[in-house]
Amino acid sequence: MKPADNDLFLPYLEKWSLVPDGARIVTPSSQLLPVTWHNRPAMLKIAHDAEERFGGLVMKWWQGDGAAKVYEADEDALLIERATGNRSVMRMALGGEDDEATRIMCRTVARLHAPRAAPMPDLRPLEHWFQELDAAASRHGGILLRSAETARLLLADPREIGPLHGDIHHDNILDFEARGWLAIDPKRVYGERCFDYANMLCNPDLPTVASPGRLQRQLAVICAETGRDAKRLLQWTLAFAGLSAAWFLSDGIDPGSDRQVAEIAAAELDG
Predict the structure, then answer these.
(1) Which three-class secondary structure state does DSSP give residue 126?
(2) Enzyme catalytic residues
(3) What would you report as the CA-atom Rg of the chain, rounded to the nearest whole angstrom?
(4) Distance in angstroms (rounded) separating the CA atoms of residues 220 and 235
(5) Element (H or E) spanning 32, and its range?
(6) Which residues, 6+ apart, have CB-to-CB distance to 146 below 8 Å?
(7) What backbone torsions phi and psi does residue 118 show, to the nearest 5 degrees?
(8) Beta strands 124-125 and 70-73: pairing type?
(9) pLDDT digits (tens, 9 = 90+) for 257-268
(10) Contact 30, 49 (CB under 8 A)
């Protein structure tokens, strides 16, 4: 590692007896370093964003069931089990196995949603997130107004409340070989469980997300796999696509596919 990298990670390398095992990874909210911990592959994550740090609360609460195991944690850093498999849900989705990729994500989410005996960690309600959509809808109008209206209806009549992953997409479900497909990088949020399934239909990093017929087909796959109500899932898709668009707009970025997905979901609801 470079000296600057060493300065950032060194306290944890010493504190948790870690050995660097790869190049540093930088994301908008965190810095990560592949390491080994007691001869096990692990990932050291140091979050810069205050909210990002709280994802570790949910990871610990899951206790490795449906998600990567947490080996060590403190207020700023998280040491988790590292995915070492070669399979990729994203590559499957782009390589003719989109249906199976969606089923894998559904099965992983079902494990995350399973009842736990431990008390729920300190999470924020979905209503907190959707405040940003209301503001964006007022400023930008268009389909965001429909998304915001739909979100208000859903939030006023919630069903199946519990801790959520909050960011289910193709790059947050990884191949852990013998342990199967597991989730990483949850957010600090709880609310209606259907929200996590709607995330699957709105991934802006998936080039085919707004391709003709894709949303309708994957909607059917999710409903067949999980028993979800198609109308309710479409409503959450419309709401979340609008929220994701609002986030992009707040950063000065064109929301692109999120607007398209919201419009497709609205059209299906009106059909």
Answers:
(1) helix
(2) 167
(3) 19
(4) 14
(5) strand 30-37
(6) 238, 242, 262, 266
(7) -70, 150
(8) unpaired
(9) 999 999 999 999
(10) yes
State how far the Cα of 134 lies from the Cα of 153, in Å rounded to an integer. Answer: 13
CA 61 to chain centre: 16
CB-based burial label for 83 (10 Å; 0-12, 13-18, 19+):
buried
- CA 226, CA 244: separation in Å to the nearest integer? 24
User: How distant, in Å, are the alpha carbons of 44, 63, 79, 149, 267 from that of 69?
Assistant: 12, 6, 9, 38, 41
Token pair for residue 131?
């405040």
List phi, psi (to 5°) of 47.
Answer: -90, 140
Q: pLDDT tens digit string along 177-205?
A: 999 999 999 999 999 999 999 999 999 99
Residues 6+ apart with CB under 8 A from 38: 17
Q: Has residue 6 got a pLDDT over 90?
A: no
Instruction: Provide the 8-state DSSP code for 192.
Output: E
Question: CA-to-CA distance for 45 and 32, rounded, in angstroms?
Answer: 4
In 3D, which of 262, 269, 268 has the Cα closest to residue 141? 262
3-state SS track over 71-115: EEECCCEEEEECCCCCCEHHHHHHCCCHHHHHHHHHHHHHHHCCC
Amino acid letter, 195: F
| Short-list 240, 186, 235, CA closest to 60 | 186
Instruction: Tell me the sheet residues that pair with 35.
Output: 20, 42
**Cα(184)–Cα(80) distance, integer angstroms:** 9
What does the alpha-carbon distance between residue 216 and residue 159 come to, in Å, rounded to a whole number?
A: 23
